[in-house]
Design a protein that fits this description.
- With 310 residues, the chain is mainly alpha-helical.
- The protein has two domains: 5-98, DNA polymerase, domain 1 (Orthogonal Bundle); 125-301, Intergrase catalytic core (hpI Integrase, Chain A, Orthogonal Bundle).
- It is built from 13 helices and three strands.
- A hairpin with a 4-residue loop joins strand 1 and strand 2.
- Helix 1 (11-26) runs antiparallel to helix 2, helix 6 packs across helix 10 (254-265) and helix 10 packs across helix 13.
- It is elongated.
- It starts with 10 loop residues before the first helix and ends in a 7-residue tail after the last helix.
Length: 310
């Protein structure tokens, strides 16, 4: 069976898609997994268009795309999946215009599927304190885990970014870490004094216990002397959450969401939070304003004398 999904569609469809995927890699710096996801979505659309007798991308009309989206809905695909596929097609349509393959964007007037945005789970400040204090500081593993938790909450990094930190990427004197996020985009994330102390203690007192002959310059090491994995970090966080008596579901990004929410509650500017999180679009960061509004509504309902029926 062919491993290249583009082999399933005619060259009139495949060649422009290949050009677009190359642009995503070279100009946007997207990861291979992301690029392959775009490829699968565009191939699925092209297969539908081919089945409808459309010969190439130049012949695509808005009505054809609407029919394709309707077919996805009838197939009971999640609205988030439908929205992702349409987003891929929108980017590709703009690429066709940019490359003078088409004069118009055939997705311009299409509406996106209505999404009910789920607010992220966050820990409150008291829960954060319990979680951060859960590791024992009497063992190298506990000192390492405390440093991971403190840095995670202090910087708002993604799990993959945390795992990829090298010793030369972190400046404890100045209080910042250089990270490479989605699309290999570099950014500087500030870290607070508690995290600086925890990481410093780990580097001097605990990291040497994990160093092996094959160890590189990764900051956080596993028992085998290699970079700690994302899976191991989340198993570790779930274990400490249980120890701290936290009942909320422990999911990826929990500390990242808590970091952003607590900054916003403290009065931080949304644009500054966007930069610290490495979001390319402010709308992604704006979900935290919904979290805060939701919390304030709960507080109002609980404590305002006119919120309850007499």
């Amino acid at each position: 069976m062919p491993t290249d999904p583009l082999e399933n569609i005619p060259s009139t469809f495949a060649e422009p898609v290949e050009s677009f995927l190359a642009w995503l890699e070279l100009e946007r710096g997207l990861s291979n997994n992301t690029i392959q996801a775009y490829a699968r979505d565009l191939v699925q659309c092209a297969e539908y268009l081919k089945m409808k007798g459309v010969p190439d991308w130049q012949a695509v009309k808005e009505s054809f795309v609407s029919e394709w989206m309707a077919s996805l809905s009838r197939a009971n695909l999640a609205r988030t999946t439908q929205a992702r596929k349409l987003s891929a097609l929108r980017m590709f349509a703009r690429h066709l215009v940019r490359e003078n393959i088409r004069k118009d964007d055939f997705t311009e007037l299409l509406g996106a599927p209505k999404l009910s945005r789920k607010l992220p789970d966050v820990l409150n400040r008291e829960e954060i304190e319990r979680l951060l204090n859960a590791p024992s500081l009497t063992t190298p593993h506990g000192i390492r885990d405390r440093a991971i938790l403190e840095l995670f909450y202090s910087s708002g990094l993604r799990v993959s970014e945390l795992c990829g930190i090298l010793l030369q990427n972190i400046n404890l004197e100045e209080g910042y870490v250089r990270v490479f996020g989605k699309g290999s985009k570099e950014r500087i994330a500030p870290i607070g004094s508690a995290a600086v102390k925890a990481v410093s203690d780990y580097v001097t007192a605990a990291r040497p216990h994990f160093v092996k002959a094959n160890t590189g310059s990764e900051l956080f090491l596993s028992q085998q002397g290699r970079a700690i994995s994302r899976k191991m970090i989340w198993v570790m966080i779930k274990s400490y959450a249980t120890k701290a008596g936290i009942k909320k579901p422990i999911k990826p990004h929990l500390l990242r969401h808590s970091f952003a929410t607590h900054l916003l509650e403290g009065g931080a500017d949304l644009r500054a939070i966007q930069e610290m999180l490495g979001h390319s679009d402010i709308s992604t960061t704006q979900i935290y304003t919904s979290v805060q509004a939701d919390r304030l509504a709960d507080e109002h309902a609980l404590y305002h004398p006119r919120s309850k029926e007499s």
